[in-house]
Design brief:
With 63 residues, this protein is mainly α. The chain has a domain of 40 residues. 94% of the residues lie in helices and 0% in strands. It is built from 2 helices and no strands. It starts with a helix and ends with a helix.
């Protein structure tokens, strides 16, 4: 069963022309460049919340 899937996938990939591969890779790279700032902002917000929670926990223990 897995061999059939691998063979089908390889045939599909071999059937793609160079121009289509360039377009597909360009779209993937473009999406990556678009999503990078958004993901960076989300990660920084999560890190800030984690730091804020840790600071609150330490202040609570000191009291």
């Amino acid at each position: 069963m897995n061999n059939i899937n691998i063979n089908d996938l390889s045939q599909i990939l071999l059937g793609i022309s160079g121009n289509k591969l360039l377009i597909i890779s360009g779209l993937i790279l473009g999406l990556g460049f678009l999503l990078k700032p958004i993901l960076k902002d989300i990660i920084s917000i999560i890190i800030d919340k984690q730091k804020h929670n840790k600071d609150n926990n330490h202040h609570g223990e000191a009291l």
